[in-house]
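Hi R.,

Here are the chain sequences for the assembly we discussed:
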Amino acid sequence: MTLEQVGILLAWGTLVGLDLVTMPQAMIARPLVAGAVAGALLGDLETGLRLGVIFELFQYDILPMGAVRYPEYGPATVAAVGAAHTAAGALGIGLGVVVGLVTGLLGGISIHLMRRLNARAVRRSAPALERGDVGVLVRLHVMSILRDAARAAVVTWAGLVLAVGGHDLLVGALAVRGALVVAVVVTGAAVAAGTVGTLRLVGRGPVAAVKPPLARSLLRLFTVQGSWNYERMLGIGFGVAEEPLLRGLSPEANGEAYRAAVARGAHFFNAHPYLCGLAVGAAARAEHDGAPPEQVERLRTALSGPLGSLGDRLVWAGWLPFNSGLALAGIALGLGWSAIIGFLVLYNVGHVTLRWWALRAGWNYGLRVADALRQPFLRRAGALLAPAMAVVTGAALPLAVGYLGDPFPSWARVLFVGAAGIGALLLLWRRLGLTGLRLGLGFAAIGLVLAVAWR
Amino acid sequence: MSIALYRIDDRLIHGQVVVGWGQRLNAGFIVLVDDAVRASPWEQELYRMGVPPNIEVITASTVEAVARLPEWDADPRVGIVVAGDVGTIAALTENCHQVTRINVGGVHQRPGRTERLRFVFLSDAEAEQLTRLAARGIQITAQDVPTARAVPLAEFI
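And here is the predicted structure of the full complex:
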């Protein structure tokens, strides 16, 4: 890689890392997109798509619910593509996956540390937050977003360093067949993680009297998780998104009611980020309707869990894997860029529509927000998405296996299918407590040992 | 079947419970034990809306839950019991031999609580209450989702 290419990948990895949790969650952080664009930036789309498919399958092992820790595969995929681009053929794929898995592990650790830093910053500013100091609230949120951008840059940089180091270490040290073993077993681990992750998802079985600045609130909602931390979770982001809707609240009281409402808005809250607007709109409307503070707090508390479970079901376990499955199948069928662009457009039409509907419904219904959730389309979406996701990912997985196994010689295909099967069984064996990342790293280690021994 | 999971979680029913544990255990019903929610029909409706139609949501006060535990334990479906705080779960274990394991799933920051794990913040009184439950032979672990490690009480108290 040239220095210019490293710089371009670093910038792309930073954007990708920022998109995962902080903003705008448009899913450029999905490995399929991150990998394809990284490949295109290097003039090597095929490698980008292949690594994108492999890490998209590892991504299926993850459900980002609540305070769960998980590896970060966006910048990891960018680094993986950079690594794979430096070496040809199977060695490139093997090297790319190993670099990507280690970078994914580092990314996950960095998110955990950043959330601790966010919590510490929130704790330091707690008295100002309780006074409803909007300047402190917004500054905290913006600093957290910048912190995440710096974090994403560091993780991508570390991944690219690993890519260059891995290239220097392995190229020339492994025979072609040894490199193939590594590529095959880590690809098998990806298929195992994708299969078991999908199985886990499928399971068994009145109009406002005032015109609120909903558009400004919606824009802020795209960053609602920017200051996510273990103490208030997305409370700070909630407060930042709610603040425009609270302006003009009882101005005759010298802004006291406004500041008290801003302070309440920044208290502990967590829900699915796309449906968070429902609580933001409802809480702001309740404040305007003069609801007692305890009732507003109760409303927030009552919405936290249901909006979490509804959003996790509809989006993380439904709409996202459904679209991802379509894209995987599209790539396997040779659609290339069209599959990536189709994924981004279709997914984000649903994503932005849901965010806008949630905020408007929350504002329109206020304390009667339960009526908003009775919308027939929500029930229908919940009933249709689960089976649709199961059908699409069920069809996409074998297509992805065919696509990933295609460049391997026949003996390596047998090893690939064997690794995928054994990997799936190991992941299903609950007592082992294995995750896709651990399985991938374990298989990579075994593959490297076999490759070195088989020179 | 029986109650497969007794969980302390101040967000009560949310994604980790429905998508995480509900799918893993193939749950047929979730019992939400909370006095405030039991007294609020609109809140009960909210919690029902977050759960797929194949999982029944039963809302109970603490007193009702203590009385109905044997009935739920004899239900042929797999059940999950969720309470929002340590005190409510402790009340369920009084005079009740069925509760042998408690899952601390999410207890978040409030004044007086200190961080024990990234998703478990406890006051000294709550920590002591959990210790007393453990001394009675109840296995207590902290685990937010099924794929995470179950952390024994001794490691986070």
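The interface with chain A takes residues 11-20, 22-24, 26, 36-37, 40, 42-43, 45-47, 49-54, 106, 108-110, 115, 118-119, 121, 144-149 of chain B (CB under 8 Å). Chain B has two domains: 11-60+75-84, 85-157.

Let me know if anything looks off.

Best,
T.
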